[in-house]
Amino acid sequence: MMKPQIRILPTLSKAIWLLPLSTSLWVAATGVSRADTELSLQETIDRAVQRSTQVGVAEADLQASVERKRQAWTNVGPRLSASYTESRFDGAQVSPLGLVRGDTTKSGSLTLAQPITGLYAAVEYAKMNGLQADLSQESLKQAKRDAGYGAAESFLQAYQAQEQVAIAEASVAAAKSAFQDAQAMFRVGRLSQADQLKFELALSQAQTRLAQAKALRQVSYLALRQAIQLPDNEAMTLQKQLPKIPEVPADSVKPKLDASRSELRKADLGSEIAGFGKKLAYAKLVPNVSVFAKWDRNFGEQTLLSGPKDNKYYGVKLDWDVWTNGTSVFEIREASAQQAKADLVKQSINDAVQLDLTQAFENSMAAQESLRLARSAVAQADEVYRIDQLRFKNGQISATDLIRSESDRTTASGNLINAETQLLVWYLRLQKAAGSELPHVAANP
Predict the structure, then answer these.
(1) What is the H or E stretch that residue 331 is in?
(2) DSSP-H helix ranges across 188-247
(3) What secondary structure letter does DSSP report for 435?
(4) Does the predicted model carry a pTM greater than 0.85?
(5) How many CA atoms does the CB half-sphere of 3 hold within 13 Å?
């Protein structure tokens, strides 16, 4: 698609005059408005589930598993095969009694076969592929869950980085104001040059922290864009307020683990599939018996040896690998080891999700307490900074004390943002650990 070409105009007035036109051309050419996309946490989750490449891969894998299951069940029924053979020779063979073989022979056949003993293996294989489809279904659920919870954490990281930039900007403004006051006080002889340089150094450090915060915000924004597959030409802003979450009482009991959690279901299915592998290995020790019906037809010339034009017959066919150098035995042993491995993996996953649930619960409770303390610390730091400003102007404290007070206030504000986002992070992780398929958050009041 062609993008509009905007010429750089010689004067600013002409550029301003053409700005609405260039915006209209952009919308007409790309179909995308330049207006910002304001994202809430819930909208981020919804977009990620719909657009995630991981979800797309899991959906394609599920479709392939379903078709593979259908294919496996078709092997249970009879099979019809057709063949045709045409052979050419240097010449015909003729005996005194007549034509023995012409210079060309043409023959074809139709064979209908139905396995008998192999039917057990075919059914078990079809059942195993059914479990594989169920496993793919659970993988799709897990992919959607991972996409939703992953995007939610990306949103919270971006929000945290955005708010840290705002705090750093406020810190720079405060440091700049303090430095300007220090310059004025130095000019009238109320402040030493050393103290003035301290304020200048504090301003430089605040500007450095701002640059670092902006860099972190850019990286966080990019991660969020990738999580929701937001086009590069679509601007993005985040909602200014985080959703409220219910307060958990301090004496709360750890929630129970949902047995339908994807990891547990996948472990159960993996153990069952390993069991089918053992059954299929044993099935190879049994001879393969099948019944068949066949029709042969001679499409060439009739000869003394060709017999009737059509031959129809039926019978029983038996195939049995009597000696395979121990291959079947080793295959059974491998299948037994794989089943033992799947059972151990199942137990390991169960232990891991139990630990995950406990960790999420305990950290949620700790994050709730940290938020309460962070709010109190911000109020205290603001009051200390206000008092220290007055004391500094009255000559009661040094420049170092005032700079430290401002730094403590900035740190307390940053800690509050961290505490707010971490509480939401652990709240969502607790939902995930308990087995919730998708994260759910309350709308902003």
Answers:
(1) helix 327-393
(2) 193-228
(3) T
(4) no
(5) 4
Q: Determine contact, residues 18/7, Cβ cutoff 8 Å.
A: no
Q: How far apart are CA 151 and CA 156, in angstroms?
A: 9
Q: Look over the chain and give the mean of its residue pLDDT values, rounded to a whole number.
A: 85
* 96-98-104-108 Cα dihedral, nearest 10 degrees: -140
Residue 443: which of 43, 156, 56 has the closest Cα?
A: 43
Compute CA distances 324 → 208, 262, 285, 329, 428, whole Å: 74, 41, 10, 9, 56
Distance, in Å, from the CA atom of 222 to the CA atom of 226, rounded to the nearest integer, reads 6
Look at residue 27 and tell me whether its pLDDT is greater than 50.
Answer: no
Torsions phi, psi of 295, nearest 5? -130, 120
CA separation for the pair 210, 176 (Å, rounded): 13
Calpha distance 304→98 (Å, rounded): 7
Q: What is the pLDDT of residue 3?
A: 40
Tokens 């959690």 correspond to what residue? 261
